[in-house]
Give the backbone structure.
Amino acid sequence: MLCFDPGDAAYLAELAEFVAVPSISRDASSATMGAAAQWLAGQLRFADAQVVATDGHPVVVGAWLGAAGAPTVLVYGHYDVQPTGAEAEWATPPFQLTVDGDVIRGRGVSDDKGPVYIVLKTAQAFLALEGRLPLNVKFLFEGEEEIGSPHLPAFVADHASDLAADLVISADGAMWRPDEPSVAVKSKGLASMDIVVHGASTDLHSGRYGGTVANPLHVLADILASLHRPDGAVAVGGFYDGIPELSPQRRREIADIAFDVPRYLAELGLTEPHGEPGFTTLERLWERPTLEINGVRGGGKYTVIPHVAVANVSCRLVPGQDPDAVIEAIAAHVTARQAAGARVEVRADDARVPAYTMPGNHPAIRAATAALQAVYPGQRVLLTCIPGTLPATTLFERVLGAKTLFFSFSTADEKLHAPNEYLRIRRLKEGMRAWEHLWRLLATRHTPT
Amino acid sequence: MLCFDPGDAAYLAELAEFVAVPSISRDASSATMGAAAQWLAGQLRFADAQVVATDGHPVVVGAWLGAAGAPTVLVYGHYDVQPTGAEAEWATPPFQLTVDGDVIRGRGVSDDKGPVYIVLKTAQAFLALEGRLPLNVKFLFEGEEEIGSPHLPAFVADHASDLAADLVISADGAMWRPDEPSVAVKSKGLASMDIVVHGASTDLHSGRYGGTVANPLHVLADILASLHRPDGAVAVGGFYDGIPELSPQRRREIADIAFDVPRYLAELGLTEPHGEPGFTTLERLWERPTLEINGVRGGGKYTVIPHVAVANVSCRLVPGQDPDAVIEAIAAHVTARQAAGARVEVRADDARVPAYTMPGNHPAIRAATAALQAVYPGQRVLLTCIPGTLPATTLFERVLGAKTLFFSFSTADEKLHAPNEYLRIRRLKEGMRAWEHLWRLLATRHTPT
């Protein structure tokens, strides 16, 4: 076994450099994004890594191909992060990696800089201690995952032969719970859009015009309220089209998994579940699509009738749903609610990702399961679903013909996308040990197809 | 007649100094608010003006009492302004007074710095040309009108004898149209609140938790949609309680006023009216209360379920409505819509203003009408309503026992509270001539009671 100690201060100091770059793909300058990419390339000198420009933020690619005859894997991850949200809600500055007891805190430590860092250190440890990696490893790190990977498809298509691999291993895609090992065999798709309501040509004084013109915020509230039925189901006609019925067997499998709903809620500060009727919380999470309003903006706390109001809406999709059809169904539902004196518009985002699945008996799933059993002896490895979206998976399948194994060591409860994102420090060490086992297993016992 | 030319560049340069102080009562520092107050006091040296501290922004008070035996009027106005809204929507910087053809543009030029400036220049012209004012004039300018005048009641109560007057004349309270003179005999009251929906203890990743917990934005949309009926009427039980039925005579009076609804809408970029059924647009504007959502905030365009969502709501009230009862009715309506997994809270604002009325045959109304007829010969002077709110009016009536005459020369269409607020330059001159006539008439012909 490789010998290293990622809890070591030097390791955390190095990860802190990566976290310190505020690589928010939605907002950051190209200089900032470039700095994060360069940092990664610096870590990947052993793989002759390059920062390659795209029409958006650059990608970092590299390859170590010294294991003649062994399989080739493509490691995927991303160096971009979500916006911080309200900085006042952070206990410590978001781009300053902070050790707090058993965890480290900072934007991106869990999604996805920490998990990417685990792979870097694993590869470097192999090279330092054994002079080689056990199999051929290519690396592809992008800077646009959090905005739907708009330029990744063109890049992968243009570099398909360079990126060719037997298997993609994603350092992105958190495990669902910290206290039990799991391998995800499914992730949800994504379709998102803005609903924009236009009223008068300018903001109006709410006294001098109130009650005589349509208020875009009222129209928007009506539309948003109409998207769900009172029981929690999505009310958009056609939204659930194409989804196979949940089989009694799958229901039993899910019911078999220890999942304490009151505890799940309590950790979120909640006491009552919510969601589509006829399904348990875990079924809702893993097997059912969702439609969530992510944001609403309009006017403010002053006496105004705003001339425009905007809602940001996203849907998580399951196998059987077509992202384009979902967007069309919502657009039809919304635009049917045009109100006199207002104009309603749906602006669908370009990024449309169908759900992704991997067979539970795939050799890579078996290797990952064995690797996790080595690191967490005596524990059952669950086959789970990622209710989040990893747009690259369907792309790799389509263009490279390779399945993607999710192998991240972040956990779903680590406030990904929220203030005070954190990562459990022990997972750095566990993750490196697991990547070591996985690579050895893929190289010797399991030949990915 | 006094001889002056307020279109003169020197006058506009001086007004530009006042506009340049970004005295946004909601946000500005006390230094900024103090600078605006000091500017006013500098203009009012003839009245020994003082800047007086309050628990909020300071007031500016002064008095010229050299007209022994003549009546005393108290001139009221405000030096604070609304927030700019999106600065990108301004054609020119909001705090840089800009001449654009027949108008000047800048935050506060219409509400209320321009109209206040008219009074200052009128008084200074009297003193320069005649050595005296025709009647005794006290001045009271506050810095918190746009946030509901929270500290004015205590100030007026504490200084009631200093402020005592036969009549208050408000430089605030725009005329309703630029092309016909009018005197307002009524203004609407105000009750406002925030509706806050709390969900989980932190923002949640919309993939990893979506569909299993209540989304505060969904709950808020349901609540906001429930505040109005589909036909436009307010759906809150008790909201309309206490309002006398609109008399056939008043309906006829309003129908008699030339009011071109398509043109009114076209000026706002609209084609269709909206509002409470059973009333014309002008009846809705002048005679009926309103409930408007002014702002909504929550989450953003990223994959999040926000842990809190907020709506800012305000109501314009008519005679017969009790602001406290209106707030209670809305709070009861809203909190009855508690949803599982969310907590709904109503935070009512302190400022609660009932509607204000003045008899149409009041001597001050007659004097104002005559003054306007002198400036706008041959035109009918309309008796109108201000659908906005002037909280000071009821205060002056209660504490000083004095009615308030609205005598502003801004106009309701001048984008008050919105980007690109402007004032017609000719109104500076017309306003000064009208104030001159009004003061002379009040001093000699009409003795206010």
About this structure: Chain B has a mean pLDDT of 93. The radius of gyration of chain B is 23 Å. Chain B touches chain A through 89 residues (CB under 8 Å).
